[in-house]
Design a protein that fits this description.
Blueprint lengths: L13 H14 L6 E5 L8 H9 L3 E5 L9
Parallel strand pairs: 1-2
Helix pairs in contact: 1-2
């Protein structure tokens, strides 16, 4: 599936990530569970994002390990 995201910030702020999740939520079928794989950035774990996720339980975040050496 291809999503069209209109606004992205190079600053990696929690508000930008929350806006991204909102776009994903609006552009996917409401009957589907959505799993998002994220890096361990603090913006992904901010209170604004946590609050948004509580209101949208079909979206679940999964985090990569802290150090990327697991890829090797």
């Amino acid at each position: 599936m291809t999503l069209s995201v209109t606004k992205l910030s190079a600053q990696h702020r929690a508000v930008d990530f929350r806006d991204f999740l909102d776009e994903v939520d609006h552009q996917t079928d409401k009957g589907l569970a959505v799993h998002v794989i994220c890096e361990n950035l603090s913006a992904h774990k901010a209170p604004a994002v946590h609050k948004w996720l509580l209101a949208h339980p079909r979206l679940q975040l999964h985090f990569t390990p802290t150090y990327p050496s697991w890829i090797n």
